Amino acid sequence: MSISGKQLSEKESWRDVVKIVKQLDPKKLEIVKATLPVVKEHGEAITKRFYKRMFANHPELKNIFNMTHQITGHQPKALADAVYGAAANIEDMSQIMPVLERIGEKHRSLQIKPEHYPIVGENLLGAIKEVLGDAATDDIMDAWADAYEVISDVFIRMENEMYKTTEAQPGGWAGFKDFVVDRKIPESDVITSFYLKPKDGTKLAEFTPGQYITVKMEIPDQEYTALRQYSLSDRPGLDYFRISVRREDPRQEGLPPGIVSTYLHNHINEGDIIPVSAPAGDFYLDRDSKLPLVLISGGVGLTPLMSMLNTVIEEEPQKEIYWIHAAVSSKYHAFKKHVNDLAANHKNLKPYIIYEKPTEEDIESKLYDKEGYITLDVLKEALPSKDNDFYFCGPTPFMKAVNRALNQWEIPKERIHYEFFGSFGDLDE
Predict the structure, then answer these.
(1) Which residues are catalytic?
(2) Could you tell me which residues come within 8 angstroms of residue 263 by beta carbon, excluding any fewer than 6 positions away?
(3) Which pairs from 121-126 meet CB under 8 Å and 24+ separation?
(4) How many whole angstroms separate alpha carbon 244 and alpha carbon 79?
(5) How far apart are CA 204 and CA 173, in angstroms?
(6) Does 176 carry a binding-site annotation?
(7) 3-state secondary structure 180-232
(8) What positions are marked as the site Involved in heme-bound ligand stabilization and O-O bond activation (predicted)?
(9) 422 is known to lie in a ligand binding site
(10) Exposure of 5 in the CB half-sphere (CA atoms within 13 A)
(11) How far apart are CA 428 and CA 402, in angstroms?
(12) E strand residue ranges, 308-415
């Protein structure tokens, strides 16, 4: 099991790691606090400038970062939010452990190492100076330089522990390991599953349902290596990892198609080799909860929830499960037969399907429960009670709709769990 799947007592030890880092000088701390509003106001401008500087000075780092997220602006916003959040809690960063853990898991999956942090620091501080201009005095820049050193020390210490734990576990490994595509199976018109087995035939590392792996792709005609995270879509304990990948066609004018997803769909076949990093991620089931489980997904967001579903069906066959899935139509609906077969054999599983634009065949065959979009009324129709644990994943607009509905229903925060694909986001509107 990866470090993110360990018990709370072990997570508490991370808080100790966070607390033993060197403290910021009180005078510099006051300067950082005083300038936080300005940095937050100009956060995205600073981080956009940061990426331009860093990639100009160190183009090799394009082998790590998702360049599509640079085009969409997702990555600069995510970094701005992370920098501001860390600086705002710099006196005791253990207060934002869920955020630190999420970023640390992402870094570990991408193989971010201590030597990368000085590069980031140099270019981030340079970007702050460029954006703020004369307002960024020597005292301010000196204070922020020390603040960055404290923040980076936290991440380096925490990620070092993650690396050691991941490598030391049974079946664990460092860096990227070659896997063979054992099977390639279409799941819908746009989603295909890839069954991956270690090339060296060794035992697979355990993982927690909901986690992801990073695949490393060398794509012809692409100058840089591409790294992408894909959720593991089947349960642990099997002799393969399964990822189920949506072919990402351009969603708006000016955006390129998904470089990795289209390459996987069109060019990767059974027998091909894909380098993979060990499972990572902080989105996972609370296995101690006795409440009914509600899994809500939109589109390819069903992949981490599929791992959870298959695991609970196998290990807790009496647990009450509600599977709520939204898709455009049956053509885009992956794992439809699998879930229906499970429900036929496990009366504790109750599927509920929402199609945005059902086809004529869907309408005639009554292959779904609701037409339209997910709302609180839909949840109330699908669920006999609100006393459940809720896990959801999907496109950001879908997730905002689900989060809004759960908040309207006054579901306690501790029973709401979700996963963002790609860069981190904010569901609050």
Answers:
(1) 117, 159
(2) 217, 219
(3) 121/145, 121/148, 121/149, 121/152, 123/50, 123/53, 123/54, 123/57, 123/58, 124/46, 124/47, 124/50, 124/83, 124/148, 126/50, 126/53
(4) 27
(5) 10
(6) no
(7) EEEEEEECCCCEEEEEEEECCCCCCCCCCCCCEEEEEECCCCCCCCEEEEEEE
(8) 51
(9) yes
(10) 20
(11) 11
(12) 321-327, 349-355, 370-371, 389-393
CA separation for the pair 289, 389 (Å, rounded): 8
Judge whether 59 is annotated as a binding position.
Answer: no
Compute the mean pLDDT over every residue in the chain, rounded to the nearest whole number.
88
Burial label, 8 (beta-carbon count in 10 A; 0-12, 13-18, 19+): exposed
Say if residue 303 carries a ligand binding annotation.
yes
**CA 419 to CA 100: how far, in whole Å?**
15
Q: Say if CB 131 and CB 45 are below 8 A apart.
A: yes
* Domain ranges, ordered by start, for the chain: 3-168, 176-277, 293-419
- Poorest-pLDDT segment among 165-169, 180-184, 330-334, 408-412: 165-169
DSSP code per residue over 297-331: EEGGGHHHHHHHHHHHHHH-TTS-EEEEEEESSGG
The least confident of 119-123, 227-231, 247-251, 371-375 is 247-251
The verdict on whether residue 373 carries a ligand-binding annotation is: no
Q: Which CATH number fits domain 176-277: 1.20.140.160, 2.60.120.460, 2.40.30.10, 3.30.70.120?
A: 2.40.30.10
Any idea which fold 293-419 has? Rossmann fold (3.40.50)
Topology match between the domains 3-168 and 176-277: no
The yes-or-no verdict on residue 268 having pLDDT over 70 is: yes
End-to-end CA distance of the chain: 35
Question: 353 by DSSP, 3-state: which?
Answer: strand
Whole-structure pTM value:
0.89
Please state, in angstroms and rounded to a whole number, the distance separating the CA atoms of residues 392 and 339. 17
Tokens of 49: 């400038």
- Residue 374 to residue 324: CA distance in whole angstroms: 9
CA distance 10 to 21: 18
Residues 6+ apart with CB under 8 A from 208: 1, 2, 4, 5, 236, 279, 281, 284, 285
Residue 332 tokens read as: 């885009």
- DSSP β-bridge partners for residue 245: 192
230 is in an annotated binding site: yes
pLDDT digits (tens, 9 = 90+) for 33-47: 999 999 989 988 998
3-state secondary structure of 292: coil
Structure tokens at 258: 């998904």
